[in-house]
Amino acid sequence: MSAEAAGSEQSGQAGAGAYGSGPRADGGGGELERINPPHLAPPTGFSHAVRAAPGTLVFLAGQTALDGSGKIVGDGIVEQFERALTNLLEVAEAAGAGPSDLAKLTVFAVDVADYRRHARELGRVWKRLVGGDFPAMAVIGATRLWDETALVEIEGIAVVRER
């Protein structure tokens, strides 16, 4: 996700030593440490690395904008991204993980240029659904996805910790 997509800089995440943002300050159970070395370009809308405290890894299968009947919904990248992210968060919740437990996400987009053009809107969706915790992320261009009408697919890894 780009700087525009995130909607904010992560300049405040240089705590706990030169390489990390330190433990979560939100009082949540367990810790995910966002690691952003100061000699690399500042991450905006993602973290360079996320180190998980002991916990259970949950591998989240790729989610598209499928509704409950198995039909892709949403006319554009923003609508489909919102539905795919919502689906991913629902799967994570069913496995006991919340948005702040997301350690790694991969976004597959059939049109990366379109994804970038809508980065600010995608960032607003992210902030509304997930908040300000950014996992390690990548956006990868894909020729097509399993469902030919899908524009985006999101997969991830979460770390569920004792709460």
Gap between N and C termini, in Å? Answer: 29 Å
Order of helices and strands: HEEEHEHHEE
**Spatial strand arrangement across the major sheet:** 3-6-4-5
Cα shape: globular
Q: Biggest β-sheet, characterized?
A: 4 strands, mixed
Unreliable parts = 1-29
Task: Determine the strand fraction and express it as a percent band.
Answer: 15-25%
Number of helices: 4
Give the topology, please.
Elements: H1 3-6, E1 32-35, E2 49-52, E3 56-63, H2 77-94, E4 102-109, H3 112-117, H4 119-129, E5 136-141, E6 152-160
Parallel strand pairs: 4-5
Antiparallel strand pairs: 1-2, 3-6, 4-6
Helix pairs in contact: 2-4
Mind explaining what this structure looks like?
This protein has 163 residues and is of the alpha+beta class. It has helices at residues 3-6, 77-94, 112-117, 119-129; strands at 32-35, 49-52, 56-63, 102-109, 136-141, 152-160. The protein has a 4-stranded mixed sheet with strand order 3-6-4-5. It has a two-stranded antiparallel sheet with strand order 1-2. The chain is globular and about 40 Å long.
